[in-house]
Amino acid sequence: MKKLILASFAAVVLSFGAAKAEETETLYKFYCAQCHGFDGNGDGPNVSQDFPVTPRNFNKGDVMGKLSDADLVNVIKEGGPSVSKSPMMPPWGKTLTDAEIAGLVKKLRVLCKCKGPS
């Protein structure tokens, strides 16, 4: 009986994690990929030749590795101007929850295959 309860608990935890990852992927595709690209290359469908700036390429680990998780949270919440970057990067702090933003930061770390400074 005890093993059944533990197995059931583990299944719930694992499915919750999978749902969270799926939700993060959906959020990334909706809010981020439009400019940053579905693979994070900075070549999203909204970026045209007359786009005023080149969106950040999340796959550049040498650049992304210099940014702390707090830096990434800040730019997602407050937008580009908060870090002296482009106003084309909108603030999502009133749209996304802290948990959703944390999930997006993890997604960016996967894309760059890097960690921020300690």
How would you describe the overall organization of this protein?
The protein is mainly α. It has one domain (2-46, 54-112): Cytochrome Bc1 Complex, Chain D, domain 2. It is built from four helices and no strands. Helix 1 (2-36) crosses helix 4 (98-112). The longest helix has 35 residues, at 2-36. The protein is globular, with a radius of gyration of 17 Å. The termini are far apart. The relative contact order is 0.15. The model is unreliable at 6-18 (pLDDT under 50).
Number of domains: 1
- How far is the N terminus from the C terminus? 44 Å
Structural class, please?
Answer: mainly alpha
What is the CATH level 1 assignment?
A: Mainly Alpha
In what range is the share of β-strand residues?
under 5%
List keywords for this structure.
0% strand, 54% helix, 118 residues, mainly alpha, Cytochrome Bc1 Complex, Chain D, domain 2
Secondary-structure map:
Blueprint: H1 2-36, H2 61-64, H3 69-78, H4 98-112
Helix pairs in contact: 1-4
Would you summarize the structure shown here?
Helix content is 54%, strand content 0%. By secondary structure, it is mainly alpha-helical.
